[in-house]
Amino acid sequence: MQHPLQDRNISKLNDIKHANKTPEVPIDYFPVFLDAVKTIMRNEQEDPEDRITAASIILYSQIGFRTAELFTVKTGSIHSVYSPNKDKPLYYMDFLSFKHGKGENGGTIAHTYINSLSREAYDLLEELCREYRNNLGVDTLLVTKFQKNATTTAPQYSTRYRKFILRHWKELQCLNIGDDYEDLSFFEVRTFFRPAKDGTYTYDKNSDWAKDLQMDDRIYYPTIRQFRVSVCTSLYRQQIPLHYIRKHMNHLSEDMAAYYIRPQKNLEKEYSETIYRAVFKDGSKMLGTNGDAFVQKINEFIEQNHMNIQDDLEGVIQAVAKKFPLRSKVGGMCIRCGEVIPCASNNSTDVIYCAFGMCPNHCHMFFMADISYEEYLQNRDVAQYNKDNGYKKAYQRELNKLKYIIEHSLMPELTMLEDELERHGEEEILDKYPQLTYIVNHLDFIKQEVQTWM
Questions:
Q1: How far apart are CA 223 and CA 29, in angstroms?
Q2: pTM for the full model?
């Protein structure tokens, strides 16, 4: 008897899957929405509670937090890093990510770079929430006036967010705009004007902002998840490689990547060409257990097909990328994806093997050193946290991961980076790979600090 799964129409299933993906915030509405939120945040005449909500929206829209991740941010969580431009300082923020969290507190320490607008919103939350924070005796960044616990919850924030949208519908230009922006969510005005059990209403219908509203009017708004989609899509449109996007989004899974980057085959092609251009044009070495054997296999393919790199470099790169497509993994790439049979561990081991470079088919390049360094910092912090709190087994487990990252990823990349700097010079390397600026300027310090964990 034929299994019913065999009768599935794959094309239709893919269409359904695509249709169910979270869309980004409409590109022509996002600036309108963001400008209004910024104005509210900066207006000292606005209700402080609305300014607090506006600042939190800014952080969601700029960083792409998962909803609960913002609630884990604490005061004093922003750190500065070296910036080649003294007029434009660079900052990163600490928070807890629950996507793969399995530690004692259910989360893992994560870091994300922030822009000046995010820094402005963060500073405002530190200021406006100080009194509420002191009343509760907590160091959580986002604390509201009537909050009773250390952190708010996703349902509570959702209600707060939608009430904010309703009160500021004029500035946000979000009334009955469904025909123009069908990707936005909505609620009817009557949602917040229904009487409670005691007969009172959430809002006074005679309030200035409510006078022109009808109960069946629809208020449209972007969801928090849409902000995450927009951040990721925006980075991709700026031609930021997927492995950097995944790092910035903190362990963005392969499945979630499909929400943001639709043309996966085109993405793999572009990514593969970038790597092969570094190997065959710049002479960079592919690091990893099977790296040399893989490059040898490619050279045999080039020779067998009578291709000439000197005469047609781009043509050869495109042919090789088509024959041997690479799949971006955290801190490197999988070289087995060009096989006739796809890698069986493609999804299930991304966090275990690929994320820590433990698979022999996991390769990497020197210009991925910033990712490996961030992985090192994150695992170092987790290991130190477990050590300081007496979690011996957890500490040993994280220490083993940390040593593996140092030995098999970070140190080989730093060593190769030194070779590349010797061959091409600092100016050329940083021109091609500006993400390495901090690494290059602190190379000796990083190597010394890393050795203390070996």
A1: 13
A2: 0.55
